[in-house]
Amino acid sequence: MDLPQGTVLMEAVAAAMDDLGCDSAVLRLDGLEMGPHNYVMPAASPDEDHAAWYSAVHSGKAARLENATAIVGRREGRWFLHCHALWAADTPKAGHLLPDQVIIAAPAHVTGLAFDGGFYDVTPDAETNFSFFRPRATETPARRNAAIVTLAPHEDLHTAIAELRAGLGLSAPAVMGIGSLIGARFTDAPSMPSPISEVLLLNGAGFDADGQPTLPALCVDPEGNLFEGNIALGGAPVCVTFELILADL
Predict the structure, then answer these.
(1) Could you identify which of 12, 206, 221, 231 might form a hypothetical disulfide with 3, taking C-beta atoms 3.0 to 4.6 angstroms apart as the criterion?
(2) How far apart are CA 59 and CA 102, in angstroms?
(3) Cα 195 to Cα 34: distance, rounded to the nearest angstrom
């Protein structure tokens, strides 16, 4: 997918999705050069109706995305994008990019996974009092080699992904996704203690030779502290939601 210089990220992705002709997609935006951009961080809830919230809007002038995953679906029938990213500016930063407030500073070619048979749709959720992506089926495919999924609060990320692979009959799927966690315990790095976070799975997420999930992840807490490591079994309960695609490549 080619994204032109000088365009708004959301508009560029929407035009490319129209040309691609698929139902939904998950994109890797690694390497994309941003001009002016706005983003938010995870934050404590201002009320008793939500488990977490968003910070005030932060702004930057220019930065390069080091790791970035964008879920592409629909909101009220129109293309919409949900993106968590790590980028390099004066200091490394991570958070939730606002896709209609990001200018692409240089021509970008991005990769990802196109999906047919269903799409992510922004949907109100009574349990969390948020509106976020939920998968909606559009057809029953003749052959199933991928699935789009959202996880509910308190589901363990590692356990759920292992169960999804088995239940869907996938062999050794690649895994891409973003969401929020109530703390995170890693097998190879110090834990993230914050009960509020923004998270993205990094390149290489999938399954090892024994069929066990390998889930390198990056987390940012409300103070902007970054945590990176491989998610441990039982160590990553979902906070609000986690959006995933699993695909045999």
Answers:
(1) 12
(2) 10
(3) 30
Specify the number of domains making up the chain: 2
Indicate the pLDDT class of residue 46, thresholds 50, 70 and 90: confident
- 162 and 89 inside one domain: no
Report pLDDT digits (tens) over 211-224: 899 999 999 999 99
Residues of the domain holding 158: 142-247
In this structure, what token pair is assigned to residue 38? 């706005």
pLDDT band of residue 45 (cuts 50, 70, 90) is confident
3-state class (DSSP) for residue 75: strand
Q: Cβ distance 149 to 136 under 8 Å?
A: no
Confirm if 97 and 83 have CB atoms less than 8 A apart.
yes
Each residue's pLDDT tens digit, 101-115: 999 999 999 999 999
Structure-token pair, residue 27: 């994109």
Measure Cα distances from 13 to 81, 102, 150, 175, 220 in Å.
Answer: 8, 12, 22, 21, 25
Query: How far, in Å, CA of 130 to CA of 168, rounded?
Result: 28
3-state secondary structure of 82: strand
Helical segments of 58-176, H only? 157-168
